[in-house]
Write a structure and sequence with these properties.
It is built from one helix and 24 strands. It has 353 residues and is mainly β.
Length: 353
């Protein structure tokens, strides 16, 4: 009789289990470590599918006791499951420019240990989804590191993982300064670390005046590297570096009237278009190298950062929280946009290749 009762209970449990409705899974767009709020009261989680990386921040404490820490996060293409996978250990630790590896299993980013008065590093970590369906980072490693020795300084300005797994390199820009003079160089390093390969001197010396290096990216076949440069003393331009000849093959002046730029990204495949976004107007400019010094196409979406989708059908555009649009997808060469998250306030977005 006891065995019959246990069998009957098991049958009832199986019926209840297989009658669960998958429509109970409610997508969530908040930064809540992937845990969903289900109005039916069940503790149901969604399995995250991280595809977009970004830099953001979190606030710890309240009022006068509050502190802000910068973070590296990931989320789904829908804006769901926004999850911090790395949080700075101090308020002075600065993070920037997260980029995915070619196969989308790892991220790299820049860490400045004491802001602009300390060493800077390129950090990499593997991104996985744990048994609870939440993205997590592991296997942290330092790919490259430069010291800071006052009054001289060394800074890593922006880094980007290559487009093809076979290339296995990360490109980055290092600025060295002493007093009012300085030098800026383009390097690559193996994705496993090791010796650097200096590709070119960009400004030698940079001289006086503010110098601001805003972004770099690889072409789809890794044959070229595009660098967006901004300089109060030398003007703004996009430089194209050829990895075969190890020379700069194109210098593209930015449009007149644009005072600052957010980021640029190269289309993933099948196209050869660079997209660059301007801080000052929100316009997106497209260029196909070689360009003969012109950037032909513009349209405005009030954005600050952008990244191409894997199939080139969309551009992901972030407004950095300063405008109401948040995070949106745009059809390239148009002004057609779809809002993904109106509350998103991240920086330096990067879509998996």
């Amino acid at each position: 009789m006891k065995n019959f009762y246990l069998s009957f209970v098991a049958i009832l449990f199986a019926i209840a289990l297989f009658s669960c409705d998958t429509s109970d899974l409610i997508p969530n767009t908040g930064p809540d470590e992937g845990i969903l709020s289900n109005p039916k009261g069940d503790n149901i989680t969604t399995i995250a599918n991280p595809a977009i990386a970004y830099k953001s921040s979190v606030v710890s404490g309240k009022g006068k006791n509050s502190n802000t820490y910068q973070t590296i996060g990931v989320m789904d293409t829908t804006g769901a499951n926004q999850t911090n996978v790395y949080t700075a250990s101090t308020t002075s630790e600065l993070l920037s420019s997260p980029t995915w590896s070619p196969v989308g299993s790892s991220l790299s980013w820049i860490k400045r240990i004491n802001g602009y008065s300390g060493p800077s590093e390129i950090i990499a970590a593997d991104i996985t989804v744990n048994l609870n369906g939440v993205p997590v980072a592991g296997n942290y490693r330092t790919i490259a590191k430069v010291p800071y020795e006052s009054p001289d300084y060394f800074w890593i300005f922006y880094q980007a993982w290559c487009s093809l797994a076979s290339t296995a390199k990360i490109a980055f820009v290092v600025t060295y300064g002493s007093g009012t003079s300085g030098w800026t160089y383009l390097y690559t390093v193996s994705t496993s670390g090791g010796a650097w390969d200096m590709l070119a001197s960009i400004y030698d010396p940079i001289g006086t005046g503010s110098e601001f290096y805003s972004h770099l990216c690889w072409s789809p076949d890794d044959s070229k590297i595009a660098i967006l440069l901004q300089s109060s003393s030398r003007g703004n331009k996009i430089l194209i570096f050829d990895n075969q000849t190890r020379t700069f093959t194109d210098s593209i002046p930015t449009p007149s009237g644009e005072s600052s730029f957010g980021s640029l990204d190269w289309s993933r495949s099948g196209m050869n278009s660079l997209a660059v976004i301007a801080h000052s107007t929100g316009y997106i400019y497209y260029v196909t190298p070689p360009t003969n010094g012109t950037i032909p196409t513009t349209n405005g979406v009030s954005g600050n950062f952008l990244s191409w989708s894997p199939n080139n059908s969309s551009l992901l555009v972030s407004t950095n929280g300063s405008r109401k649009e948040g995070l949106m997808k745009m059809i390239p060469f148009t002004s057609t946009v779809t809002i993904i998250s109106s509350t998103f306030s991240g920086f330096s977005i990067n879509w998996k290749k």
